[in-house]
Design a protein that fits this description.
The chain is mainly beta. The chain has one domain. Helices cover 12% and strands 59% of the residues. It is built from one helix and eight strands. Strands 2-1-8-7 form a four-stranded antiparallel sheet, with no helix packed on it. The chain has a four-stranded antiparallel sheet with strand order 3-4-5-6, with no helix packed on it. A hairpin with a 2-residue loop joins strand 3 (65-83) and strand 4 (86-106).
Length: 180
């Protein structure tokens, strides 16, 4: 009797296992890819006077990260020591310029959730107090903005910040357009 029960039980279990193996997960739907144009304008102002305006425009798509690095690698003295009677300086390099990352995700109501990270840096050596012939580390003016925006096709959002020492205003305007 035990042997018969074991055979019946084994038969039932093998059928359950076979059914479980036959079940295949349906492929997951790929998110809809939408072609986008993102326009960004970085403006620097001192009072009412516009000091600079730098536009950027690039093509991207939803659910993919877009990254831009534009600038110059600037050597920064890190250590200074004497070797064999000579002064030796080692350097580390810092990217000075614009660095940005964007990712857009479509929402159910036709808008786009735009995640962004933006950094703009400039060499601020005239304000560092350096004197001719004296090597000191340069100073940098850096503006960093990171966040997320909910934008419709053609909509623009802006952010501003004021430099605490100079009063210079940095304005970042981001426009998102669907490419048709």
């Amino acid at each position: 009797m035990k042997k018969v029960m074991s055979i019946v039980l084994a038969g039932l279990l093998s059928g359950v296992v076979a059914q479980a193996q036959d079940k295949v997960e349906p492929p997951k739907a790929r998110p809809k890819i939408v072609a986008l144009r993102i326009q960004l304008v970085l403006s620097r102002l001192q009072g009412d006077r516009k000091l600079a305006s730098r536009p950027y425009s690039f093509a991207s798509s939803t659910n993919k990260q877009f990254t831009l690095r534009q600038g110059t690698e600037v050597p920064i003295p890190v250590t200074q020591y004497e070797k064999d009677g000579k002064d030796v300086t080692s350097f580390q390099y810092k990217n000075v310029g614009a660095n940005m990352e964007f990712t857009a995700e479509p929402t159910d109501d036709g808008r786009f959730l735009l995640f962004y990270a933006f950094e703009d840096s400039t060499l601020w050596d005239e304000k560092s107090g350096s004197k001719p012939g004296i090597s000191i580390a340069p100073a940098f003016d850096i503006v960093t903005m990171r966040g997320q925006l909910l934008l419709r096709d053609g909509e623009t959002a802006s952010s501003t910040t004021t430099h605490p020492m100079t009063g210079e205003v940095t304005k970042l305007e981001i426009t998102l357009n669907v490419v048709k």
